[in-house]
Specification:
Bound molecules: zinc ion
Number of helices: 3
Helix content: 25-40%
Shape: elongated
Strand order of the largest sheet: 1-2-3
Strand content: 15-25%
Number of strands: 3
Order of helices and strands: HEEEHH
Amino acid sequence: MNSGLIGKIEKAKRYAQERNRIHVRGLRVDFDGENDRHEVSLEGETWRCSCDFFAGWGGCAHTMALERILEGMLPRSSLLPQPA
Ligand SMILES: [Zn+2]
């Protein structure tokens, strides 16, 4: 394998561990919930979800799951208050 490519792969492995380098600004996800598929999006610092719970609360299990997956890579203000 090309030595330049090997170097890039090594750098990618290191970067993947250094989440503070990555700043997610937007996202579109089809999320398979227990009953339905939901459309979840993040634009800047604003989450949206097509589920009924989100409509009433401005957050839901789907957005909170994605916040956990993307921990360290989201703007702080997009995080919902979480129970301690
Ligand atoms: Zn939802």
